[in-house]
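Bench notes, afternoon.
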Amino acid sequence: MFDEDSPLQGDLQSELDGMDEPINSILIFAVNNLARFGEPVRDRFTLVEFPYPNSEERREFITRKIEQAKPYMHVDFDVNRLVRATESMSFRAIEKAWNEAAFTFIETKKPISTEDFSRFLRNASLERPQDLTALFG
């Protein structure tokens, strides 16, 4: 557990310890890094994991984004390269980078460069902000 989480873990543990009788409710607790919470907290929850989208799911998502953008901006992306570049990324992270690119295009009316998109990936805190020089031709 990280130091900044210690008060949260203590409060959560106290609240959970105070539940002596079964209650008719569900607590949904979403975290990005389960390792931040100790075993006593993790042991009290049923773990449900949502894996990153696979390549086909990312392909469908990216293709839909491109089709939606075509009436508003010039879009000439290689879908296969984008699918590979977004491996191990969530839909949320891909969406954040896509939105940043779209908003920049709307504001500047300039085509989005590889360097721009690389910056959008970093800003979206994506796990794989790799060299994307091949993405845009």
